[in-house]
Amino acid sequence: MANLKSFLGATGVAALASLAMSTAVLADDSEDRKFGYSITLTGVSDYLFRGVSLTDNKPAFQPFIEFTYGIGYLNFWGSNVDNGVGDPFEMDISAGIRPVTGPVSWDIGVLYYTNPANKNGWSATDYVEFKVGASISPIKNLTLGVTGYITPDQANYVQTETIEGSASYELPQFAIFTPTLSGGVGYTTADDAPGFFGAGSDSYTYWNVGLKLSVDKYFMDFRYWDTDLGNVTSSNGGAHLADSRFLFSAGVNLP
Predict the structure, then answer these.
(1) Could you tell me if 128 and 150 are in contact, meaning their C-beta atoms sit under 8 angstroms apart?
(2) What is the mean pLDDT of each run of 10 residues along the chain (255 residues)?
(3) Which of 139, 142, 146, 212 lies 20 to 30 angstroms, CA to CA, from 102?
(4) Alpha-carbon span 67 to 76, nearest angstrom
(5) What is the pLDDT of residue 91?
(6) Which pLDDT value is given to residue 207?
(7) What is the separation, in whole angstroms, between the first and last Cα of the chain?
(8) Which CA distances in Å does 65 have to 74, 186, 201?
């Protein structure tokens, strides 16, 4: 079974790479080749990764910067963490392409997760993940998306597969606010690692629904999160990390 899983993981990664190359060829050749960048600074009441708190239910500051050139992108995202593994902060680097084929917008890339200042050294917790996402807008203001992730078996992480679906709808402007309703559901599994996600689970489902209010470059988001992961507690045996909760975030997009 382990060999089969390894084969399937390698095949999945190869399929992602093949899809990325073929989709890039289909991209619009007339697209402007211009450099761009954007910055987002966000404060959140809790850092949730796929429905699980990585800050022991405490707030986090999460800066993000992205550089683009044509359909290509490179971005850096950071957050403070408090999970007894990667403290005191996380830095993620991702790169990929966002081609458009007909009505479908793609996001195909690779993510590198790392905790540069953790007590065990730079490479003690880092791992790589691949993703393919697609979204469409079947009617005005409605966006539907699905994204698949594959984390190959590696030194600091077991093989996992994740699938996420999302939907968002931009409502008519209300006073100074542009409101957007959105929600998502995801499922992640680590078949060869019983109990990998805690509470004796090798897979779980997570979901969220919320309202985002935007005013020019500023935004606030009010969101409900939950999982079916069960009783996962922090390293000190106290706080529950994967139960239902309301998450508040606020930030600004620059420039």
Answers:
(1) no
(2) 42 49 48 87 98 95 98 98 91 98 98 90 87 98 98 92 98 96 98 85 96 98 95 72 96 95
(3) 212
(4) 9
(5) 96
(6) 98
(7) 51
(8) 9, 25, 34
| CA distance linking residue 245 with residue 227, whole number of Å | 10
Neighbouring residues of 223: CB distance < 8 A, sequence distance ≥ 6: 208, 209, 210, 211, 246, 247, 248, 249
Q: What is the DSSP letter of 81?
A: -
Taken as a whole, the chain contains a residue count of 255
Which pTM value belongs to this model? 0.87
Segments making up each domain of the chain, as ranges: 2-254
Q: 122 phi and psi, to 5 degrees?
A: -50, -45
CA–CA separation, 241 and 233 (whole Å): 6
pLDDT of amino acid 27 = 47
Question: By the 8 A CB rule, do 45 and 247 touch?
Answer: yes
* CATH architecture designation of domain 2-254: Beta Barrel (2.40)
Structure tokens at 73: 């992108």
Element (H, E) at 206: strand 203-215
What pLDDT shows up at residue 231? 78
Write the single-letter amino acid at 26.
Answer: L
Joined together, the tokens standing for residue 217 give 């470059």
Alpha carbon of 29 to those of 4, 25, 88, 206: distances in Å? 40, 9, 44, 39
